[in-house]
Amino acid sequence: MCSIVSVRCSSGGAFAGLAMMTMMLALLLTTTIVSGDNQIELTEQLPTVMVAVLVRNKAHTLPYFFSYLEDLDYPKDRMSLWIRSDHNEDRSIEITKAWLKRTSSLYHSVDFKYRSERGKRESEKTSTHWNEERFSDVIRLKQDALQAARMMWADYIFFIDADVFLTNSNTLGKLIERKLPIVAPMLVSDGLYSNFWCGMTSDYYYQRTDDYKKILNYDQIGQWPVPMVHTAVLVSLNIAQTRQLTFERKNLPVGRYDGPVDDIIIFAMSANYSGIPMYVCNELLYGYIMVPLEAGETVPGKDLEQLTNVLSYIVNEYGALSLKQDLSRFVADVPKDKLSLSHIYMINLERRTERRTKMLKHFDLLGLDVEHFPAVDGKQLSDKKVYDMGIRFLPGYADPFHKRPMTMGEIGCFLSHYNIWERMVRLNQQEVLVLEDDIRFEPFFRRRAYGVLADARRIGGWDLIYFGRKRLQEEDEKWIDGSEYLVKAGYSYWTLGYVITLEGAKKLLREQPLSKLLPVDEYLPIMFDNHPNESWTSHFRDRTLSAWSAAPLLLYPTHYTGDEGYISDTEDSLRIDGTLPAVGGPSKGSSGMVSNDTRDGGQGQASQEPKKGDKEQLPNAPALLSESGIGQGEHDLETKNRRSEL
């Protein structure tokens, strides 16, 4: 036996009847009435919106979904909630109840119905199997939602899936301001999947187009007419033609549709037959979307990984996640480990608390057990301190971009990495991952990191593996024999993240680099003997470091030169003043000072020159910097038009 439970509540009585005609209003406007010598200003209320949500097996997304839904900056007394849920195998109903218990009184009305029996339909092979019965149920429920919105005379209905995170609190208001009949906020996933199509085949399925990526990548920004929107869709019910919209095939014009039993396709065709355009809007970053699971994929496997990817994107963008206190108890802590390594260090300046806080959130999401390693702060260094530490600079070194000596920040950066190498030797740590604090993790980071490490250990013969870097040489890098994830590293910049062995650390220390210092991302390519400057490399004898790189990379910078929020503690710090002795001491007849003629004479134009923080500019850089996750290419979108609702 199964039971259907209905929960209804309202903050203002039944949302229907003639009394509700006053709620069918336009956007917030001020009307001025002149009465005699007086002017009276009257403010119209915002339009009413019914939010329709279908929930099934979304316990892992609901705490965040409801938190961001609650954060929408739209009057809740102008919003009604219509929620349906059934065939759950998790705590979805419990979470929904918990949230509604606290928030129901805030909204104009709440209509929540659910089936209490657990488990999939008898006709379903798995909970991710989409058969005709499942499609029919979803179609029926969405049609019920559409009819309920019409009956309550709502101005708009907003269909939204329970694995969407509207991180922009102005989403609803901004979409209503567009005054479009059907509009979807463009949502970002961990790959190329989104909630719109730019093309549809003659048999009603997804078709690749050039415009899709242009819209998705914000190469063209605005409101774009498209043949399909789904997952988060706002429909204006004040437009007469929307009475023809339907999710049910039987309601379409007779003889016109011969396509599949599919809710989003039928809805799109009903709009097409009624002459109602559909739009996707990418004027803002509105939020994020999960990629639907395929048959056979599971929530504990693929979907949890995808959730981690999306939440990581949100942390990158906003610095934190929205999670209401009463919902946090439904989010389990992720067990932490060291990725099978001896240790993981994160280099971070003590004064960069905002970076440290953001990185700690990433570690919590990814389940990484990481030790904060205080960086040597270049702002605390002086020429005298550097000299007293025994540091001498490589003769003839000048920054390749600015033709200047090292900055104090670059010195501090080198010392930070150097101190970790020393600690590795002292503690006999066999394999260590070194991370900087201005990085973003690529999708499926854990799985891909384990794959890289497994290949490296099976093949052997490596000292260092870049997880993130800036490739500088144009020649193709050779794949490591027997590996699908590793290449032999060429000349590279950046030390965003790398795995180093104990033997690799010993090699880097044996060359006594503090006696002939240059930036650490110049030193590493010298040590694996792949550096173009022979005059620099000649000062280092044992250039036998075996360096590989993950391909594709697992880490990228959070910002590039010129990006809003870009800060460099190395490039933008003070330079040495040229009074430190050169390696080997002063030559006969010299003043004992390092010549400063390598400085850039046109410092005022430095901002127009290339910097190490720039993106790669190689011919194949777009491929190298691709950010798509595993199996998330556009060719997969044709099979990704199944949703994961009921």
From TrEMBL:
Pfam families: Glyco_tranf_2_4, Glyco_transf_25. This is Glycosyl transferase family 25 domain-containing protein. Residues 343-522 form the Glycosyl transferase family domain. Residues 577-646 are annotated as: Disordered. Residues 633-646 have a biased composition (Basic and acidic residues). Coiled coil: none annotated. It comes from Anopheles gambiae (African malaria mosquito). Gene3D superfamilies: Spore Coat Polysaccharide Biosynthesis Protein SpsA, Chain A. The keyword Transferase applies.
